[in-house]
Design brief:
Layout (H helix, E strand, L loop, with lengths): L1 H8 L8 E6 L3 E7 L4 E7 L23 H9 L6 E6 L3 H12 L1 H4 L2 E6 L5 H18 L3
Parallel strand pairs: 1-4, 4-5
Antiparallel strand pairs: 1-2, 2-3
């Protein structure tokens, strides 16, 4: 019986890998982390417009059209992550979530939340992500 307990204790030696994606229409800042380490990846939107605000006298909603190449590049970085939190100051976070739900169902199942966060520093971003995932982990049955 002692051996069975020892085997059970090491059944999942790999720590959960989290990702927080801070995204707006110009860039996506992705923080990958687990309990041992953190790393950051910055993806710039190469064709991002300077402004996304509506101008008087123009036709249409004034919103930037979804750029699938940019969203696909961000989504591709999330393939090997266990849990994803998407944050940002604008509508881009919802566009990314919708894109992933349409195009990458396996990743969509791992999205644990979408939150509004303005423009944090790198340290603030990691601290926010760690607090969020600790809270998510507490709500899970053990």
């Amino acid at each position: 019986m002692r051996n069975a307990q020892a085997l059970h204790a090491v059944a999942d030696p790999r720590p959960t890998r989290h990702a927080l994606v801070w995204i707006d229409h110009r860039q996506a800042d992705i923080v990958f982390f687990d309990r041992h380490a953190a790393e950051r990846k910055l993806i710039r939107h190469h064709d991002a417009p300077r402004s996304i605000h509506h101008r008087a006298g123009t036709t249409g909603s004034g919103h930037v059209v979804e750029d699938t190449l940019y969203l696909n590049e961000v989504a591709a970085e999330l393939r090997d992550v266990d849990e994803v939190l998407i944050v940002g100051p604008s509508h881009s976070k919802w566009e990314l979530k919708a894109y992933i739900e349409r195009r990458a169902h396996d990743i969509a199942e791992r999205i644990v939340g979408v939150e509004t966060v303005n423009h944090p520093t790198e340290g603030q971003l990691l601290a926010y992500a760690q607090r969020y995932f600790v809270a998510v982990d507490r709500m899970r049955p053990h």
